[in-house]
Amino acid sequence: NAFYKDYEGRWSYETLNETNIDDCIGYLRDWKSEDPDDFLQSERIGTFRILDLYNELPCKGGLIRIDGNVRAFAIGSMLSDRMCQENIEKADGDVRGLYQCIMKEMLSHEFPGIELVNREDDTGRENLRAAKLSYHPVSIIEKYRIKKGVES
Fold first, then answer.
1. Residue 71 dihedral angles phi and psi, to the nearest 5°
2. Would you kindly state where each structural domain of the chain is located, as residue ranges?
3. For the domain 2-133, what is the CATH superfamily, name and number?
């Protein structure tokens, strides 16, 4: 991964806990805050809520700092004794390889030995779908959206 080479000696991983959760909240305040996409802004609001309740939820997470500043975080939870799901993944898209790094580091530190990872849905976004397909999933479940009052 390019990230490990480009940022050697400048980054660190931390398990998400009560001492650093506010740093993630601060990072999320700026993350895509100007993006006009309503879905993305709704996702940000949901992520704020999860971070606020983090210590009460059955989940684990981690963050990556570059030069001391939070630049990525991820949160996951167990689905079964063999499978976890990555519920939230936020990173600076301008840092090459950072999304892959936060996923790898969070899984290896917080879910060691897990056999399968559910990356959840791609919300219909082609770039996100392509990124998730690059991990060569074992299976993909087709999903549909239902809207009240809309006929096809």
1. -125, -5
2. 2-133
3. Gcn5-related N-acetyltransferase (GNAT) (3.40.630.30)
pLDDT tens-digit series, residues 1-22? 789 999 999 999 999 999 999 9
3-state secondary structure 33-94: CCCCCHHHHHHHHHHHHHHHCHHHCCCEEEEEEECCEEEEEEEEEECCCCEEEEEEEEECCC
pLDDT one-digit tens code per residue, 109-144: 999 989 988 776 545 555 544 544 444 555 555 655
Residue with tokens 């939870």: 77
pTM of the model: 0.80
